[in-house]
Each structure stands twice: as structure tokens, then as C-alpha cells.
Specification:
This protein is an alpha+beta fold and 140 residues long. Helix content is 30%, strand content 22%.
Length: 140
């Protein structure tokens, strides 16, 4: 068996130019829209919930579970994409926005580079957040 080593005499600038396309100094910003919430009886309806699901990389199951756990409420999504929150109190647009920010920080935004282009993966029963930009992985 032979091992061939190739010595590459590259300057720092040449090495940096090779990796520069994968490193972007500008952080991608995730803008969270104001929710369209309406109230009827003991239910709060988020009419633009489908938009949040799309914005958070189609993580509907995680988002619903997060809302249930944080607010201790019963939630369901109707066929038209509206979120129904069954609770004794009314949830305001401000409280829903704060909840979405917390969800994004936990389940969407990369802890290393701040990018929102991430995937949720499961390895050995552990949920991990994998970044498609910097390729880092963090546990949830």
C-alpha cells in the first residue's frame, strides 16, 4: 500500500479564496410577521398560521407541540391552514409573536452562524438542528 502526499504551497489569500464562497459575513435575517389573530367564543384563531409554518421550514408538528407545551393549551390546524387555540384566555398578537421568536431561536436559527437555513434531524433518538450554511450541528 502506498500513500501519496501532495504538498500544496498556497498562500493565506489563496486558501481564503477557496473557502470564501461558503462563508458569508452577512447574516440572513428571519423576519417574523405580525399574526392575524381573531377571537370567537373561547377560541383564538391565527389566520396566517400557514405562513409561519412555511417561514419555519415546514416544521408544523414541532411548532404545534411548542405552542401546546409553552401555553398549556389545546391547538389544532383546520383545512384552510388556520390555527385554532382553545383556551380560557385570549392570546394577543404580541404574545403570539414572542412565542414565535422563542420557537425560531430554539428550532430554526443556527446557534453557530445565526442562519435560518436549517434542518431537524434525529440521531440515536436525539433531535439535532443541522445548519445548511456552516454545517454545524447542535442538540435541542
Amino acid at each position: 500500500m502506498f500513500i501519496i502526499l501532495i504538498k500544496m504551497d498556497l498562500s493565506f489569500e489563496q486558501l481564503f479564496d477557496r473557502i470564501a464562497p461558503s462563508i458569508d459575513s452577512k447574516k440572513e435575517k428571519l423576519c417574523i410577521d405580525i399574526p392575524d389573530i381573531r377571537f370567537k367564543d373561547s377560541k383564538s384563531w391565527v389566520h396566517n398560521f400557514k405562513h409561519y409554518v412555511e417561514q419555519f421550514n415546514d416544521r408544523e408538528d414541532e411548532l404545534l407541540e411548542f405552542i401546546k407545551n409553552e401555553w398549556k393549551v389545546e391547538v389544532s390546524v383546520k383545512d384552510d391552514g388556520k390555527l385554532c387555540i382553545k383556551a380560557k384566555r385570549r392570546y394577543t398578537a404580541e404574545s403570539f409573536t414572542n412565542l414565535m421568536v422563542n420557537f425560531a431561536k430554539t428550532f430554526v436559527i443556527c446557534k453557530s452562524c445565526g442562519c435560518s437555513d436549517t434542518n431537524l434531524i434525529r440521531e440515536s433518538g436525539i433531535k439535532l438542528l443541522k445548519c445548511n450554511k456552516c454545517f454545524s450541528t447542535s442538540s435541542l
